[in-house]
Amino acid sequence: MKQINKYYIGLLTLLTLACSDDDKTVDILLPNVERGAVLRTVSIQGSALDVLDTSATTTIEIEEQDAENGELLSEVRVFVNLTDNTDDETTTTTEAQLATISASEFAAGPFGLPRGSFMTTVGEIASTLGISTGDYNCGDAFVIRLELELTDGRVFSSDDVTGTVQGGSFFTSPFQYTINLIAPLPSDDLFTGQYQLVTETVGNLGVADYVDGTYTVESVNNTTKVVRSIPTLGGGFGPVDFEFQFICGEVVVTPGQSLGAGCNGTINSGPAKVNTTYDLNDPDDRDFVINFTSDESDDCGVGPAQVSLRLTKI
User: Fold this and answer.
1) What would the pLDDT profile of 12-41 be if each residue is shown by its tens digit?
2) What is the mean pLDDT of residues 138-157?
3) Type and span of the H or E element at 239
4) Contact status, residue 243 vs residue 225, Cβ threshold 8 Å
5) 180-198 pLDDT tens trace
6) Which alpha helices (DSSP H) does the chain contain, by range?
7) What is the DSSP letter of 254?
8) What angle do CA 290, 294, 298 make, to 5 degrees?
9) What ranges in 130-269 are assigned the alpha helix state H?
10) Phi then psi dihedrals of residue 32, to 5 deg
11) CA-CA distances (angstroms) from residue 201 to 118, 139, 213, 293?
């Protein structure tokens, strides 16, 4: 216990010095952004789609940032692929280009930087990949990857970003999005309301990622829920939102969720190696457990850990 307490005190000291507020994070990141280019995620709607609805829509809005305040933007190419998560993994696809967004399709946003968006459907993605209903199933996922080309010929994509740029508190620029294929819940109101959050397993950081307490759970959409405004890491950081999804009988935490702190970059929560389950035919929202991965990118150098929390409806 003494060793854990000593580690915890040291961790809090490092975190406080590293990123006590978002402004310091931005100050650290701006020099890196000026040397390259990113596509910051402004918003995403439809991160989980009904597997049986070919018209179900995903819309992603992005903001391009480069050394010349957007003047280097040439175009953004959108690619898609299928992740077959079924037991037999019978469907194999090759990444294909879905769309091209030219610089002329972007417009100046509130920061004076170019913003653009694109929309696609389950049917359009399937057609681009040359597959049809039955080739993709509940639990599978479409992966959307962006590729940014500048006027000087440089190209940036998901392989070029660091953990800080990929999932920071302001710069969220993964260049890649996972769109889960799901079966909708019987009601949008399920798993919403006031809940008591209790940590069941603490990770390698020696303290609970999310502080125990009473919080409001809201619907982002039918199967995506979010716990609002949770202090993190003993209460010294945050508050942050904690998002999770109900996907084909499993409770899955959305990847890359910042705790509002970091040791070297950003400490993120992400999906568990083994998810908890719920009854697809008769889901019970009175009391449930969520498994997730603590510090999924090993930002603090002590290794990711499999942890869990319980939500009980009040």
Assistant:
1) 444 444 444 444 433 444 444 446 799 999
2) 94
3) strand 237-247
4) yes
5) 898 899 999 999 999 999 9
6) 2-19, 22-35, 122-129, 163-167
7) P
8) 155
9) 163-167
10) -70, -40
11) 40, 26, 15, 11
